[in-house]
Input
Amino acid sequence: MGASSSWRPIGCLVLAAAIATLGMLTSGETPLAGADGRDDDPIAGYFADSLPRYPGVAEYPLGTKMRVGGEDMKLAYFITRDPPIRVAEFYARYWEAHGLRVTKDVTPHGGSVGAFDPENGAMAVSLVVRGGRTFAFPSLMQRPMRMLEVGDLADGGQIAAFPGSDGALRFTAEDEGRQSEVLSYGNWAGLRDNVDFYRREMGRRGWRESRDRSRAGAAPEVEGQRTLRFERRGERADISIAALGGGGRVRVLVTRTRGW
Output
């Protein structure tokens, strides 16, 4: 994997994990960045020097035992009132000043900015706007990720994965006894066929679809995207299927949580 593109799948998958995590961060009393008055630094020494600290915020490690594509990864978060474009520019300027090539895809609604440092690894900062605040998720992975076969994601047949999909990646984490993972892959079967497949095949595997979209944390339906929620014996799986352009290509994100 080339240095200029190493961060790309990391940024996309961390963004998926960030969106999946927002329900947890916004459902309770999450401290506003820079407003908790703490004297200690919860993230001191957590990242390499090449992943700088955003000024004026309190930054926190997120979860433990995180892995992406079979490789260890460090992930943190902070919250700021600054818009995503301003946050991304801070990191882009820092990396460019240190001679690193930067790639970014950021809008007022969020996105990702990243770079590859041959000494420290692939870095990405994923950004999501929620309630007028920017949730930022800096991440660092020292070794390139390995793309998985979709068959590797089926967990011995316990969870469905659309046949013929490609570009598969897995993000895993454990936090206070709760295990979670985000699976990401794509295929060319279109939105409708994917929805029908997951409803049919998840049901065959003993999962029950929850059709109550008013529940806290349920993702809203938007044009070109469907989110299905399934539950089974203390597990939950949210499957988000999004159309990419008009050629039939879709992206599938499976967020699976155990012990919720």
Notes: The chain is about 20% helix and 40% strand. The longest helix spans residues 7-27. The mean pLDDT is 75.
